[in-house]
Amino acid sequence: MTASASAPHTTRGKLASSMSHEQLAEITELFANRRKGYSLEAPLYTDRSVFDVEMQAIFGTHWLFAASIAEIPEPGDYVTLDYGPHSLIVLRTDDGGVNVLHNVCRHRGARVLTAASGSTGNLVCGYHSWTYSPEGDLIHASAPGEGDFDKNCFALKRAHGRIHAGLIFVSLAQEPPADFDEVAEIFEPYLAPHDISRTKVAYQQDIIEEGNWKLVMENNRECYHCDGHPELACSLFPTWGLSDETVPPHLEEVWARNQKAQADLEERCRRYGMPYEVVEQLDTRVAGIRISRESLDGDGESFSADGHRLSKKLLGVLRDFRLGRCSMHLQPNSWFHFQSDHVITFAAYPINEHQTLVRTTWLVADDAVEGDDYDLEQLTHTWKQTNLQDKAFVELCQKGAASPAYQPGPYMKSEYQVEAFINWYTQRVLEHLA
Fold it and tell me: Which pTM value belongs to this model?
């Protein structure tokens, strides 16, 4: 684990303080009166004032997944991360850690780095060439007649950054949620065998969905709609989230096959000393998590038409391709699939109250050769198609939430993780508003 060295800048309170007491009271009432087991009232999906509160209460406070170290493997490598009104630079340091800097020049506010990713030494603003060190210190701002200009007062503002199991997380809060350390202790043993430090990016896909970020997350947290994912259904059992009591008759045979595959997977995990048990703390802690290792259909190796491996190279220290998927959900905005042959990371970044950027990144072993060890189109096919299908579902829901005829509907039993996400969300916002 590594963390940024200096205290971060925070915007907590600025947006909410600009609202009238009446606006805040109305928003607070919406959250306080939320009916458990039902979707949210329409303004919570459509209203700009609610979005502004979320940018403080959720995206200005909690730990967010930003990237993997496979995306910035060398010192000086960086990615820029944009969500809501924020833009961050996530920069790999010489000691293997990360610096997280607000991408806002201290001169007149221009973006310092404009590319989505790259490599740099010092950071040079393209407007007036103010130059910053990788730590954000202002080291050059020469101009005629500026004899008493104190560069020490104009460093780039910082945010928190840390690395766990090869995943990079950022937080804008002055004091981020402390229980994230406990959550990292939960997930690190599950992810360690896949060793992200020995992977590389095979492909990254950005999709802008015309929907509120919470609708993106709700859609992700259930498989009630998985009949709409024919490619994914080849390898992901459509009984995900069901139990003996909730399996419909037409899925009983699939459920039995799933149970047998899961028992076989757990036996292999015990043989290799790998954790597989479900840990589900989605709304019972501040840094909510769900993680488990779950079987896949067919050959049980990867997300393909027959469940067979999509790369010939095993990841990390793994010795068996038949290890299903390690699935992890982290509140508020990320989910992950770790297979024996590749990793897929997902994150949702709000753009505004009705648009969300969904970023998907495929990682393979760093010595895997495209064309020899994996075919890129086959590697990405299932989730490219699934993402486009989910985009359409989310956009249908956003249109519905904007309709005068909309009213909250009940979550089904198999959608209990959607309820857990919404319960976590409402708790966090109410805590902030209080």
Answer: 0.93
- Predicted local confidence at residue 255, as pLDDT: 87
- What is the C-alpha to C-alpha distance for residues 36 and 53, in angstroms, rounded to an integer? 21
Q: What is the pLDDT of residue 239?
A: 77
Beta pairing partners, 164 = 167
Which residues are paired to 102 by β-bridges? 88
- Torsional class of 209: left (φ above 0), alpha (ψ -120 to 50), beta (otherwise): beta
The two structure tokens encoding residue 65: 């997944």
Name residue, tokens 């919406």.
30
b/e map 415-425, b = 16+ CB within 10 Å: bbbbbbbbbbb
Instruction: Categorise residue 126: left if φ over 0, alpha if ψ from -120 to 50, beta otherwise.
Output: alpha
Residue 49 falls within a domain, yes or no?
Answer: no
CA triple 78-58-293, angle to 5 deg: 75
Strand partners of residue 269: none
42 falls within a domain: no
Domain that holds residue 236: 178-433
* Nearest-angstrom CA–CA distance, 122 and 134: 6
What CA–CA distance (Å, rounded) separates 206 from 357?
7
Q: Which stretches of 235-307 are assigned E, i.e. beta strand? A: 279-281, 289-294
The domain that contains 197 carries what CATH number?
3.90.380.10
Query: 335's torsion region: left (phi>0), alpha (psi -120 to 50) or beta?
Result: beta
Confidence of residue 152 (pLDDT cuts 50, 70, 90): confident
Domain count, the chain: 1
Say how far apart CA 270 and CA 282 lie, in whole Å: 25
Tens of pLDDT, residue by residue over 305-339, are 999 999 999 999 999 999 999 999 999 999 999 99
Return the amino acid letter for 359: R
Instruction: For residue 182, give the amino acid letter.
Output: E
Residue showing tokens 């609202």: 19
What are the phi and psi torsion angles at 114 (to 5°)?
Answer: -105, -15
Residue 408 counted as domain residue: yes
Q: If 0-12 CB within 10 Å is exposed, 13-18 middle and 19+ buried, where does residue 394 land?
A: buried
End-to-end alpha carbon distance in the chain: 32
Burial class (CB in 10 A: 0-12, 13-18, 19+), 87: middle
For residues 358 and 335, what is the distance between their CA atoms, to the nearest angstrom?
Answer: 11
- 259 and 223 in contact (C-beta within 8 Å)? no
What is the per-residue pLDDT across 155-175, written as a single tens digit (0 to 9) for each? 999 999 999 999 999 999 999
Tell me the C-alpha distance between 19 and 52, whole Å.
10
Give the model's confidence band at 10: pLDDT under 50 very low, under 70 low, under 90 confident, else very high.
very low
Assigned domain for 333 exists? yes
